[in-house]
Amino acid sequence: MPDIHQIQFSLEEYQEAARIYREPLLLLPLFAAQETLKFMTGVPGVRYSVAVGTAESNAQFAPYKASRKSAGTTDVIYRDLKTYFGNVSEDFEPNSVIQLLLGRGAAFLGDGQKTAPSAKLVLSTVMKALGHNLEQALFTAERDATGDTTMDLFDGWGTIADKEIAANNISVAKGNLMELTDAITDVNAVDIAKEIVYGLDSSLRKQNCFLYCSQDFADKYNESYLATHSGIVYNDKFEQVYVEGSNRKVTLAPLPCLDGTDKFFVSPKENMLFGYDNMSDIERIQVDRFQPWILTLSAAMFFGVQFHSIDKRMLKVIKLAGSSSNEESGSNTPAGGDTPAGGGEGGNGQ
Predict the structure, then answer these.
(1) For the structural domain made of 4-54+79-144+152-343, what CATH number should be given?
(2) What pTM was estimated for this model as a whole?
(3) Could you state, in order of their start, the residue ranges of all structural domains in the chain?
């Protein structure tokens, strides 16, 4: 019986595929993470840093006066969307990937060479595998320039929120933080979700938003909904998409990367930014052979995330009950109980 090595591969073929399909191949990790990134907004062409701004104004009409001249009230607040340069050097065996793609044992067929996937497809399979770790890091990654994993590449949304809480830019007094007092169960999940919705700023509540939460919370919400709405048709409406009481404005977005974390988030999709650079010559992908039957794929790309605004009209961070960071944030005092410096800027959003 012929063995798998009868399917030959050409180093030059893989190098050519890496050159021709460079841009789509470099974007494949993002596409592989689309189950999460579809709830966010991508900003292409970001290399290192770009300022994203929100304009706020208190300008208003008043009774006519020919001499009317109001003081400037318009302010533009910037946040830095930073992307970080990361790379990977991954060994892979083309024949193993081909066998996987064709189905186990297919490579032993006499016409295996003719039906073997192209070099582009093999490289795509390897690049897509990088997307899983990227997806898992979106909220909990913490930048460490000396690190060796995706978790070290950039600051995730949760890490950014932690830093803003520590700086008192996100707090109960400013209206962009809520601290839950009860642990979530399959009995109270609907009530907690409604508490979150009712606690949103009125401007945020009237927008189409996602409640970025764990799959466990979504499951408990469905169980709780079933228990409190016993008259529903199970097969038709058991899995609830919209949060009860939100007027179909707040949609559950259960994300595996939020499992086991201490925070959920409510925000419009447009406020959750991820940056990448699909234009720079610095981003690259290449293939080399350093040992028999094994190829090495080397790739480099930029990636990072940021909130467009942390103003209460655009974001609500939900701190789960039992979080050890509640006390650390100093925001567990009743609303309005912060120091004057911390409580007087609730509307200017960083």
Answers:
(1) 3.90.1690
(2) 0.77
(3) 4-54+79-144+152-343
